[in-house]
């Protein structure tokens, strides 16, 4: 009998995170799924996207502020280029401090 993994694509992971958030278990789930380095990289990535969306700083300034390489900033910038204005605005709203 051949076994297959339960989770096969990214959308299933997104759905899993959504379900974990609904049940207030997302902190535990993400801590279990991500190493400390991955969690720190994710924090940096969120800050990169936020700063790029705000548009107040150059990529070099963001790099210096966050202590990450310019290539990391460029990857975030390239990802944003694939998004439309509505998606960018929605993300900027989501990333506003609470």
From TrEMBL:
Cellular compartments annotated: Cytoplasm
GO cellular component: a single term: cytoplasm
Family listed: Belongs to the TrpR family.
Segments for region (Disordered): 78-98
Subunit structure comment from the entry: Homodimer.
GO BP field: negative regulation of DNA-templated transcription
The UniProt record lists the keyword Ligase: no
Organism: Vibrio caribbeanicus ATCC BAA-2122
HAMAP family: Trp_repressor (MF_00475)
One Pfam assignment: Trp_repressor
Signal peptide location: none
Main location: cytoplasm
The protein's name in its UniProt record: Trp operon repressor homolog
Keyword annotations from UniProtKB, A to Z: Cytoplasm, DNA-binding, Repressor, Transcription, Transcription regulation
DNA-binding region(s), residue ranges: 59-82
Keyword Electron transport recorded: no
Its biological purpose: This protein is an aporepressor. When complexed with L-tryptophan it binds the operator region of the trp operon and prevents the initiation of transcription.
A single MF term (Gene Ontology): DNA-binding transcription factor activity
């Amino acid at each position: 009998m051949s076994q297959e993994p339960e989770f096969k694509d990214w959308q299933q992971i997104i759905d899993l995170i959504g379900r974990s958030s609904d049940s207030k278990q997302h902190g535990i789930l993400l801590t279990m799924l991500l190493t400390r380095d991955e969690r720190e990289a994710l924090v940096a990535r969120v800050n990169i996207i936020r700063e790029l969306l705000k548009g107040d700083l150059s990529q070099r300034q963001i790099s210096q502020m966050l202590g990450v390489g310019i290539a990391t900033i460029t990857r975030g910038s390239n990802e944003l280029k694939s998004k439309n204005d509505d998606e960018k605005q929605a993300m900027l709203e989501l990333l506003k401090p609470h």
